[in-house]
């Protein structure tokens, strides 16, 4: 009952194999996209996790602090009413203590390092023309939104526009040496850059900004984002040719992506650290408001229901143009059920799948599917329309599917 309260994008918990994880921060980095995580917010996601991620250690992708604890067995726990009474009492206690700490002497913790993006660095310059500054800020916001939406062409055009503005104003972009600290970049600063539009990764003692790399190589987006804001040294050369590895570095890495060396952590003010820990505890105990929880649990509107009843072609018009004028053969569900794979097996056993009453041969997708081959082969020979829609595939991915 406590896990189910944390069911909104800003506060998303899931239970997996008896453990409770806060996946709020991870949602943007999830290789399968945030939608499937949010559809299981506040729920036990063990079954779908084990179906898709057989043998994958979740600890390799989540930060240590994401593990909140074990899922309790109801018979061994206090009553729900007593728990919420204690929870509310602790919330009031934390608020009083935080007020006392904050109204005392201002804590003088070490200042947060500035962000090392070249545009962000320029925007902090006092002598920068105000009109140019406003234009750069607007373009940077548009570029971030385009990257988050995986519209890489638009993001590339926006970046080119920003560069041309700087060139016209005769303002050189700052070098990495100008932006970097001689003492190195602490991992606590790297952790702040963990989004598609601002992605840093550390490995082998060096910090890299891979935001632009993902812009030029969108197919590398998901493996890189899985380690955004983290030290990926433990995965170095584990899978030859995949991120992160020496072969991958030779093919994809550009010299300008290097930010600097990993540096020591700055000294932490004890009072500031105490406030941070108490704020984190308060955030966990408060959770979403009752209104937010009710909105998340509310049944879909009539408009949403009507959309779900529309055919796939009605929702995504570009699909109709691909199949128009083509005479496609008919198959029975019994025939499809015989095609369970694996790929390369005996003739007549190729992996097929049913999506929206259409039959697809999965062979061309194996090896390139973002969710991995296991999830495809586990559903071969069946109607997987419901599972397919859970992931809310984009129109672009559906068009590519039908073209292949």
Explain what the structure shows.
With 404 residues, the chain is an alpha+beta fold. It has 21 helices and 10 strands. The strands form 3 sheets. The protein has a 4-stranded antiparallel beta sheet with strand order 1-2-3-4. Strands 5-6-7-8 form a 4-stranded antiparallel beta sheet. A hairpin with a 2-residue loop joins strand 6 and strand 7. Helix 4 runs antiparallel to helix 13 and helix 6 runs antiparallel to helix 7. The protein is globular, with a radius of gyration of 25 Å. It starts with a helix and ends with a helix. About 4% of the residues have low confidence.
Keywords:
21 helices, alpha+beta, four-stranded antiparallel β-sheet, 404 residues
Whole-Å distance between the termini? 45 Å
Largest sheet: 4 strands, antiparallel
Quaternary organisation: single chain
Helix/strand/pairing class, anyone? alpha+beta
Question: Any low-confidence stretches, pLDDT <50, length ≥5?
Answer: 106-117, 302-307
Label the overall shape: globular
Instruction: Indicate the proportion of strand residues.
Output: 5-15%
Task: Assign a percent range to the helix content.
Answer: 40-55%
Estimated radius of gyration: 25 Å
Mean pLDDT figure:
80
The strand line-up of the biggest sheet is 1-2-3-4
Number of strands: 10
Number of helices: 21
């Amino acid at each position: 009952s406590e896990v189910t309260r944390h069911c909104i994008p800003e506060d998303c918990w899931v239970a997996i194999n008896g453990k409770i994880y806060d996946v709020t921060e991870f949602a943007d980095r999830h290789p399968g996209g945030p939608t499937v995580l949010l559809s299981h917010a506040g729920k036990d996601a063990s079954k779908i996790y084990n179906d898709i991620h057989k043998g994958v250690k979740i600890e390799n992708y989540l930060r240590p602090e994401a593990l909140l604890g074990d899922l309790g067995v109801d018979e061994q726990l206090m009553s729900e009413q007593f728990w919420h009474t204690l929870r509310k009492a602790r919330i009031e206690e934390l608020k009083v203590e935080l007020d006392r700490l904050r109204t005392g002497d201002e804590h003088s913790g070490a200042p947060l390092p500035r962000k090392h993006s070249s545009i962000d660095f320029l925007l902090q310059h006092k002598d920068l023309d105000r009109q140019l500054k406003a234009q750069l800020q607007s373009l940077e916001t548009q570029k971030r939104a385009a990257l988050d939406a995986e519209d890489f062409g638009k993001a590339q055009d926006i970046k080119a526009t920003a560069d041309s503005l700087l060139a016209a104003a005769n303002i050189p972009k700052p070098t990495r040496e100008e932006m970097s600290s001689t003492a190195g970049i602490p991992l606590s600063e790297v952790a702040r850059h963990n989004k598609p539009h601002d992605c840093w990764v550390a490995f082998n003692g060096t910090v890299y900004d891979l935001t632009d790399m993902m812009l030029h190589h969108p197919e590398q987006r998901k493996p890189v984002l899985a380690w955004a804001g983290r030290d990926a040294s433990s995965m170095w050369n584990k899978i030859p040719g995949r991120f992160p590895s020496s072969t991958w570095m030779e093919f994809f890495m550009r010299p300008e992506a290097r930010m600097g060396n990993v540096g020591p952590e700055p000294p932490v003010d004890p009072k500031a650290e105490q406030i941070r820990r108490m704020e984190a505890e308060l955030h966990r105990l408060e959770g979403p408001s009752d209104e937010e929880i009710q909105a998340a649990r509310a049944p879909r509107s009539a408009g949403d229901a009507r959309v779900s009843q529309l055919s796939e072609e009605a929702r995504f018009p570009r699909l109709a143009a691909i199949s128009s004028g083509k005479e496609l053969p008919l198959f029975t569900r019994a025939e499809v059920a015989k095609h369970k794979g694996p790929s390369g097996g005996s003739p007549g056993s190729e992996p097929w799948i049913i999506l929206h009453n259409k039959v697809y041969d999965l062979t061309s997708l194996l090896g390139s599917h973002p969710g991995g081959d296991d999830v495809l082969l586990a559903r071969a020979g069946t109607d997987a329309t419901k599972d397919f829609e859970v992931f809310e595939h984009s129109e672009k991915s559906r068009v590519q599917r039908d073209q292949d």
